[in-house]
Amino acid sequence: MRRREWLGVTLASAVAPFAARAQSGELVVFAAASLKNALDEIASAWTKDTGKPKPRISYAASSALAKQIEQGAPADLFLSADTDWMDYVAKKDLIKADTRVNLLGNTIVLIAPKDSAAAVQVKQGFDLAKALSGGKLAMANVDAVPAGKYGKAALEKLGAWDGVKDKVAQAENVRAALLLVVRSEAALGIVYATDAAAAGSNVKIVGVFPEDSHPPIIYPAAVVKAEKSAEATPFLDYLKSAKARPAFEKQGFTVLVPSAT
Question: What DSSP string runs through 186-234?
């Protein structure tokens, strides 16, 4: 994928989710921005395999999507990038509890622009501020967006947060943070490994955060209680199936559910 084409995809994934009411019977999926590449591929495969209309998928930060569901946005299925925001809608009785499933796992990485000479060993006590060389650290919102929360937790655990907290360029979601690095507007960034993979040669991974430096990265999915489409549960079943697994794994996700046939 050429740089211009990839940027167009990324910009599309970084915009706020639509608020327009879905057409009657249309399957509407609210999904964390980091799922875009995999879900777009799976949605196309679903239509090809079943002959059913392609789902309408809105990508944004899990926090924004959860709040929109709370406000009555027309979502049938919700895929969050952490359990906290799924717990949020669950506590407000907005999802069908018996459909909830921990679907995917992920990791977070430190990235740099493709031409950067940065070399960073991510470990306890590492000097991230020095590695920034006066530049910015791109992160999704560290107080609300899962990728930002995971990143902040890891930096705190590794003793690096205090040195860089004033150098963080916060973005509305992880794909927007990724774009800051692609454009060299940030010297380094913290994103999911899957986002770095989606960016291809536009960025390079300069460090991987230890799994024990942050809470487990889990993507839960559930049908929204106010669903209007009869396809929400079938599509969720498709996401758990062997047909969807390759698309997730190709992007670097770990599939946490046994694949149904």
Answer: SSEEEEEHHHHHHHGGGEEEEEE--GGGS---EEEEEEBTT---TTHHH
CA distance 174 to 5: 19
Q: What residues form DSSP beta bridges with 218?
A: 105
What residue spans define the domains of the chain? 15-105+218-255, 108-213
- Distance of alpha carbon 222 from alpha carbon 206, whole angstroms: 34
pLDDT > 70 fraction of the chain, expressed in percent and rounded: 90
Fold annotation for 15-105+218-255: D-Maltodextrin-Binding Protein; domain 2 (3.40.190)
Record the tokens describing residue 105, joined without a space: 């796992």
76 three-class SS = coil
The count of other CB atoms within 10 Å of the CB of residue 110 is 25
DSSP character for 53? Answer: P
Handedness of CA 108, 160, 171, 179 (dihedral sign): negative
Each residue's pLDDT tens digit, 21-60: 445 678 999 999 999 999 999 999 999 999 999 999 999 9
CA trace torsion 115, 116, 121, 124 (10° rounding): -130
Helices (H), the chain: 3-14, 36-50, 62-70, 83-91, 128-132, 146-157, 161-164, 174-182, 193-199, 232-239, 245-250
For 181, phi then psi, to 5°, come to: -75, -40
Asked whether the domain spanning 108-213 has the same topology as the one spanning 15-105+218-255, the reply is yes
Question: Which fold would CATH assign to domain 108-213?
Answer: D-Maltodextrin-Binding Protein; domain 2 (3.40.190)
